[in-house]
Amino acid sequence: MSETVIGIDLGTTNSCVCVHLNNKLKILENKEGGRTTPSYVFFTEHSFIVGQYAKRMADAKPEYGIYEIKRLVGRKYDDPYVKKNLNYLPFKVTNISNEPVVVVQTKNQVLKKSPQELCAYILGKIKSDVEAKLGHPVDKAVITVPAYFNIAQREVTLAAAQTAGFSVLKLLNEPTAAALSYYYENKSNVDGYSLVYDLGGGTFDVAILQRSGSDITIVGVDGETHLGGHDFDNLLVEHVCQVLINQHNYNPKNDRRNMRRLNNECEEVKKILSEAEETNIILNAFVPNQNTVDIPITRAQFEAKAEQLFQKTIEIVTRCLEKVSLEKSDIKEVILSGGSTRIPKIQSLISAYFGGKILNKFINPDECVAEGAAIQAALLSKDPAQAISQIKITDVTPLSLGIADFVDVMTFMIKRNTPIPVTRTTNRVTVYNNQANMSFHIYEGERLDAKKNYFLGRLEITDLTPAPPGQCSVTVVMTVDQNGILTVKATETVSNRTKDLKIVYTRGSRSDSDIKSVVVEAEENKKEDELFKQFAEVKGYVVKYCIRAMYNFENKGLVATHKDAYDKCNDVLNRLKDLDVDDEKEVKKLKVEVLALCQPLQKKYAFKHMP
Ligand SMILES: Nc1ncnc2c1ncn2[C@@H]1O[C@H](COP(=O)(O)OP(=O)(O)OP(=O)(O)O)[C@@H](O)[C@H]1O
Ligand SMILES: [Mg+2]
């Protein structure tokens, strides 16, 4: 098997493949001769095609042509973002176990394809084209993903690659890839911070990198998983629909083929407006009983419609700078990547934002992500022909990861923006006497109140060694590997006996898919979180105290003798179940009451294991 490692940019709209060989970066053209491959799958009765022709066929038969799959990857069907996308995608998507599954009805069969399978088809074509081009099998790849892809989205991407026959050496964040390509091409440049502004078809990514010699560190990332060229297209589509409804009494929204045509037309017009000040949206044989509809549109009109979205990208840039405590003036270079950065208004907004800085357009916005992937691939390759002068690169976790304790306080194990790969360890002890199971709720987010974070999964250990409360301990090891994938492992350690326990890691669902809002929300709610923590600490203490006191009463045969104290503990435990953060006073009162009754007994009988 060949040692060649290729770099793949699996884009929302276009995919691109590159390889670093004999000191050169080379974009690998597909069989049709294209440097990028449209991320389209088109189904025929017995088979399917991928790429440029699939896109062409999809225009004619939209119900068989699947695209923008990346927008569905790793998401739940009930994710509002998925719902929003389903409004305009012309193919059918159904809900199977809360996963969005594409349905294609051919003449004789109903095909159901998950986003994972569809991505695998695209990667499958890429693989076969690359092998044809290089003349030997290729099964190792670096694949890029948006920096803000969550773990579920990363897992689906990996699984798709495996299905397509790739062993993935690393999932690389897209803006990091863009920066790598930039640094590679600009070897002579000075040290300092650069900012990558990557606006593609479906996602917006920002990354701030610091370079010092050959060392590159990603110091911060931010972005929006649903902001890109397609949103601009949709603004134009909406505009045309309104004109057609108002002036021609025709609403194309019920006609899939026309909507597909309109989408294509609007995308073309958008691109033309990057060159020309004005143009026309011309629709032939589109409106019933009308030969041609001609809708003039100017660049200024388009810019006005997209203004809010453009501004949003600037806000995200600001937030990313703030997060890492940098000033605009600290940024030495701004690197543009992604097809949508060809929009003149975007370029002028960013340049103005950075005080008239000349933007770096040296790299090709369609190819730089694949190039970066190829550089990373070369760094990982064992093939001498791929050798590359060493660039070191460090990546970070976009959000904090942790587990909830027994009163739902988030224990942050891996902090946001920690370089990965990373491993962190923590210890947990049992709460109850002879507690048999311990479960760990794993969360991603910044809130101290764990339940307000994004739930990733639950790991449960059963058959714990029987022990008094607090006396059986479990070590939890959390790892994020080079692909940004999280593994949690729990090991019970009682009387030097170590058990390896099975990891149960379920995919999370995020109804509010905006990771960035998590960070903002946490900042805005710092006070509330502090109050929660104070409350939870008292509550946690009282719970532990009561359970352990009751254990001692039982253990020492004192339940009957001190029934009032025993019952008090039991009552307090029951009361606590209904109390939340607003009842802090009440919890404190209960604490005083319990301690008043039990502390003298605790001393008198030398209670064990008390908190
Ligand atoms: N000249 C142009 N003017 C405006 N937009 C353009 C131009 N050229 C390309 N685009 C837009 O760029 C987008 C595609 O960019 P790109 O290929 O970088 O995205 P992608 O990598 O497929 O998506 P993502 O990175 O979001 O997954 C499309 O929306 C396309 O319309
Ligand atoms: Mg891209």
From TrEMBL:
Biological process terms in GO annotation: protein refolding
- A single GO CC term, please? cytoplasm
- Molecular-function GO term, any one: heat shock protein binding
One Pfam annotation reads: HSP70
Question: Which PROSITE patterns does the record match to this protein?
Answer: HSP70_1, HSP70_3
Query: Keyword annotations for this protein?
Result: ATP-binding, Nucleotide-binding, Stress response
User: To which protein family does this belong?
Assistant: Belongs to the heat shock protein 70 family.
Q: What is this protein called?
A: Heat shock 70 kDa protein cognate 4-like Protein
Question: What is the source species?
Answer: Tribolium castaneum
At the highest ranks, the source species' classification is: Eukaryota, Metazoa, Ecdysozoa, Arthropoda, Hexapoda
